[in-house]
Amino acid sequence: MASALTRFREDLHDDMQDQVARLTREVSSLRKMVSRQGQAAYADARDGAGDLYDDLWERVQDAMPDIRRGARRARDTARDNPVVTAAVAVGVIGLLAVLLTRRS
User: Fold this and answer.
1) d(CA 24, CA 28)
2) Which residues of 16-33 are buried (b: 16+ CB within 10 A; e: fewer)?
3) I need a labelling partner for 38 at 20 to 30 A (CA). Which of 20, 65, 89, 94 fits?
4) Close Cβ partners of 77 (under 8 Å, ≥ 6 residues apart)
5) pLDDT in the model for residue 95
6) pTM for this predicted structure
7) Cα 97–101–104 angle (5° rounding)?
8) Can you tell me the distance from the alpha carbon of 17 to that of 12, in angstroms, rounded to the nearest whole number?
9) CB–CB of 32/25 below 8 Å?
10) What is the Cα–Cα distance from 76 to 70, expressed in whole angstroms?
11) 1 has a pLDDT exceeding 80
């Protein structure tokens, strides 16, 4: 009787060791798969960000002549109307002060 019980216990122990080994291999395989998917997702995100940056850079370059023209117009208008420019500056500073004090 003791030998049958000992054999059963050894068989159960061996079976459990096999199951643990199989599960360890499966977990390792899953880790590798998740790692590959993470790397692929990172590469896709990096490529997408690079494409977005390139597109944005092209748009900024295309808009620069208009931006420069508008800045020159604003500068010329400010030179021609210094009183109005000072009043607008005071108004903007006042608005910023009100907004900053309301946040606190």
Assistant:
1) 6
2) eeeeeeeeeeeeeeeeee
3) 20
4) 85
5) 95
6) 0.46
7) 145
8) 9
9) no
10) 10
11) no
